[in-house]
Amino acid sequence: MKPEALALGVAGLFGGLLIGWIIGAQYTGRPPMAPSPTTAPASTSAGTMAAPEPGPVDEARAASLRAEAEARPEDAAVRAELGNVYFDAARYSEAITWYEAALAVDPRDADVSTDLGVSYYYTDQADRALQQFAYSLDVDPDHTKTLLNLGIVRAFAKRDLPGAVEVWERVIALAPDSPEGRAARQALDAVQSVHAGTGS
Q1: Looking at residue 160, what is its pLDDT?
Q2: pTM of the prediction?
Q3: Which domains does the chain show, CATH number per domain?
């Protein structure tokens, strides 16, 4: 079986679970959702994962955070939180604006950098997402959230299943009992199932 076809098969098996998990677990301090296919975007015909449809933004919260950001130009956290508000509403272009602003103030925040990478991915900028993940790993080489997301983009956007497996195995080695480690284990189990099913 060609690697491209295998990647598409794997996307059908575990894409919903992983993307659903990622959407719910992007931010430090937030408990991740249990993976759920009902929260996941659909596969596109190219085998990549489509972003969820934009939802409502808590406009009062956004306005309050924008006022705080204006009043405190050196506050990275308020800019990151505003990015989170837009990310949660699947308004990724607006999330990008605020994550980039947060990183301009605090360029060493691997969590925000990775959230920015995921936002790039959801706006059809897979190469920028990979570049951002590389930056996150320069900041923190063992950042499991980055590694998990790197595997997602390699598998779905680049159809690089061996590359995805490599980083997911690293996540498991670093933090086997973490939410990221469990999600990586699900992905690897799905890959093994596909290999077993195709006899390869």
Answers
A1: 93
A2: 0.76
A3: 3-54+90-96+103-198 (1.25.40.10)
